[in-house]
Design goal:
single chain, 5-stranded mixed sheet, 4 helices, globular, 751 residues
Length: 751
């Protein structure tokens, strides 16, 4: 397989970073600089009286909470100079990202991912996996987990719990830059750079990255097709091997300018590109109910995928006449375009019925564009803080699939009409919200909100000329309550109602070819999933240990779930259905602190119970599972120049519509040696015990399936991290010390 030469591409971030952040600059900060001043430490009771927009400087040694979310400071993770955002999310409590880029939170898959509190096209649909695997963790400031979203959050791209990626920002007067470069086995390489300059009324910052990755995987699937009337079983088996080379690069930048004492304008832009070359080989063998071989063949595939995404935004902040009064408005445009070309060669020993020609080709196009206009008004008063806001958004999606038969003699291509289709979806949303945060006495704080959303869906099955539409009007309430037991201990109670609207791939009814035995389609009749969730938490400090324990419960109705059934003797269709109800609950905890002067421990865990309807069973059975998941990060500081970090990760059994996924366990190791105050040597070992795998079991009246897939496990990277310029009077930007991913430390006050 040809490999692209990427040396120039990956050296560009280092050169550009050096130019972006000049060596050392000494400037004065004017009174109107936008970076907020950190307020004095606040008690839990005071949180309800401080505007949500207030912020403090979050150091590398602790995280902070707000009334409606948990915030995890990721800058202290020394592996961030090498990791992707997907790697970092796998270290956040109760969050998991599998090798295919699927994100779950407390075992739930309908997770919405925002960037700086706003939706982005690259974090929706099929685009998200590629973005998470390409974007560098070094660009992150923190990760916010919002299990019960408040009224200010919409329902685009998920509608369930929210993971908010807070991107890195620096407003310290002067200039600062950091460059990271890492090399691994088999030509793997990544580099990133970040630079900022603040002087006078102007603040500018930007980042660049490049990455090259090679991954191989093997898989095995055994499948039994069951006749429910006779109990007769027809079996098939599939084994596969694949290898993918991925190259990605991107840039982002922002500019903030103070027009005066009351007005600030800002512009932001980002662009990311990635390409993937892949080879795969699959072996299929199937027998009928009598054991007679009905299919036996091998298929080879060459794939070429390209993905491009961009984002543009402009904002205006205006301070009112009252202290803390502010109006913010943002206009954002984002888009992504993914193009794929796959060429198939099938060598038939026993050719199955309705199989494709020996030579075929498939083109895929997935395109998403979002335009988003929002406004938020905040007005503090004597009793509390009022927030009002609006949103107008338009999300357009295109799924275009072309399947072609290739003549072996002439290589002439003809369109296979039964496997070719174009589907377009336009989702228009109008929303209004209001919330009020107030203090009740010295110990109580409350935040209540209501969001109203009107959604209009226009679906166009372009190939067949079929058009359809749907619309929803939803009221979405939320409530949060805090109680200050002491200076170190607070109770939190929260409730939220949410909806999950189906996306383009969920609604497209056309059958899309995956391989000779697997096809998929959406369901245009899907209704939104409605969720009600309740959470009770306690935050306290036990000696040097910051502790957060939360009890939670959730109920989903009209749950959107996958349903699979045979449309022929050998072909399995995967579609979507509203699958009744599901219930889940559990206990989640995080502990963080110094066990000894040199050893810092961060531990988190989740003991969960889930129950849901079993798709594919006529008796309307329920399936339940108890799952235990845990994470631990041990950081040992041998001396000021040397530190070692070990991260252990274990995920328990999780349910899906027709079955369950088996537990997984991984371990990562990081060593950091400071060669000087500015330069550090970093060694990363991912999946130390080579244990990464994905194992699932399906059990219905008509289908039994066991599937396991293993990817390249243990990966070793060696890299350098160099920083220069001013940084808050000489503080190092991403030191190895501190709890980092632990629970809030002194963070029960405002943020």
């Amino acid at each position: 397989m040809p490999r692209r030469h990427s040396s120039v591409l990956l050296l560009a971030p280092i050169v550009a970073g050096t130019l972006l952040a000049p060596a050392h600059a000494s400037v004065q900060q004017p009174p109107a600089v936008t970076a907020p001043v950190a307020p004095a430490p606040a008690t839990p009771a005071l949180e309800a009286t401080v505007p949500v927009e207030s912020t403090v400087s979050v150091s590398a040694v602790r995280s902070s909470n707000r009334i409606d979310r948990q915030a995890y400071d990721v800058k202290s993770d020394s592996a961030a100079t090498n990791d992707t955002i997907a790697d970092t999310l796998n270290k956040v409590p109760s969050v998991a990202v599998d090798p295919d880029g699927n994100v779950t939170l407390r075992g739930r898959s309908n997770v919405q991912i925002l960037i700086d509190g706003k939706p982005s096209a690259m974090m929706q649909g099929d685009n998200r996996a590629a973005a998470l695997a390409a974007l560098p963790a070094a660009d992150l400031e923190s990760v916010e987990v919002i299990n019960n979203p408040g009224a200010q959050f919409g329902n685009e791209g998920g509608g369930g719990p929210i993971i908010n990626l807070v991107m890195r920002r620096e407003r310290t007067p002067g200039s600062f830059g950091v460059v990271n470069a890492n090399a691994g086995q088999e030509g793997r390489f990544n580099a990133s750079t970040f630079g900022s300059y603040t002087g006078g009324r102007l603040s500018v910052q930007g980042a660049l990255f490049g990455r090259r990755d090679t991954r191989g995987s093997t898989g095995e699937t055994t499948r039994d097709r069951i006749d429910p009337a006779t109990g007769a079983v027809a079996s098939s088996a599939q084994s596969s091997y694949s290898e993918n080379d991925t190259e990605s690069a991107g840039a982002n930048g922002s500019l903030t300018y103070n027009l005066g004492e009351k007005d600030v304008i800002s512009v932001k832009a980002n662009v990311n590109v990635s390409s993937q070359d892949g080879l795969s080989s699959e072996r299929y063998r199937g027998t009928d109910e009598r054991g007679v071989v009905e299919s036996d063949y091998q298929r080879s595939t060459v794939r070429d995928n390209n993905n491009r995404s961009y984002g543009l935004s402009a904002g205006w902040d205006h301070k009112g006449t009252l202290p803390g009064e502010i109006f913010k408005t943002d206009l954002r445009l984002s888009g992504t375009r993914g193009e794929g070309d796959a060429r198939f060669v099938s060598d038939y020993t026993v050719r199955p019925i309705n199989s494709s020609d020996p030579l075929t080709r498939q083109d895929n196009l997935n395109e998403t564009r979002i335009i988003d206009f929002t406004g938020d008004y905040e007005r503090p008063g004597e009793a509390g803080v009022l927030k009002l806001g609006y949103k107008v958004a338009r999300n357009s999606s295109v799924i275009d699939t072309r399947f072609l038969n290739v003549d072996p003699a002439t290589l002439f291509e003809t369109v296979n009409a039964s496997r070719t289709n174009r589907f377009e979806l336009v989702d228009t949303t109008l929303a209004l919200y209001g919330s009020y945060q107030m203090r009740l006495g010295d110990k109580w704080g409350v935040l209540g909100g209501l969001r109203t959303e009107y959604t209009d869906l226009d679906m166009d099955q372009v190939t067949t000329g079929i058009q359809a539409g749907n619309h929803y009007l939803e009221a979405i309430p939320s409530a949060f309550l805090t109680y200050n037991l002491s200076d170190d201990t607070a109770l939190r109670l929260s409730y939220a109602h949410r909806i999950r609207r189906p996306g383009a791939s969920d609604l497209n009814p056309f059958v899309i070819y995956r391989d000779e035995t697997n096809v998929s389609s959406g369901n245009p009749d899907l209704m939104p999933t409605e969720s009600d969730s309740l959470e009770l938490g306690v935050e306290t400090k036990l000696g040097n240990i910051e502790t957060n324990v939360r009890l939670y419960a959730r109920r989903d109705t009209d749950l959107i779930s996958e349903r699979r059934y045979f449309i022929s003797d050998t072909v399995l269709l995967t579609t979507r259905e509203n699958a009744g109800t599901s219930r889940s609950g559990g206990l989640e905890f995080t502990f963080s602190g110094r066990a000894t002067p040199k050893l810092t421990i961060n531990a988190s865990g989740n003991i969960g119970y889930s129950e849901q309807s079993v798709l594919g069973n006529e008796d309307d059975d329920k399936r339940s599972a108890t799952s235990i998941a845990g994470r631990a990060r041990f950081n040992y500081q041998f001396n000021p120049a040397n530190s070692l970090q070990l991260v252990l990760n274990a995920q328990g059994k999780t349910l899906f519509g027709e079955g369950y996924r088996q537990p997984t366990r991984t371990a990562d190791l990081n060593y950091r040696h400071n060669l000087s105050q500015a330069l550090s040597l970093v060694v990363n070992v991912n999946d130390v015990f080579d244990s990464q795998k994905s194992e699932s079991i399906t059990e219905t009246d008509r289908l039994r399936e066991y599937s396991i897939r293993r990817q390249d496990g243990r990966l070793v990277y060696v890299g350098l991290s160099y920083r220069f310029g001013t940084f808050g009077g000489g503080r190092g930007p991403r030191g190895p010390g501190g709890p980092g991913f632990g629970p809030p430390g002194g963070g029960m006050g405002p943020r």
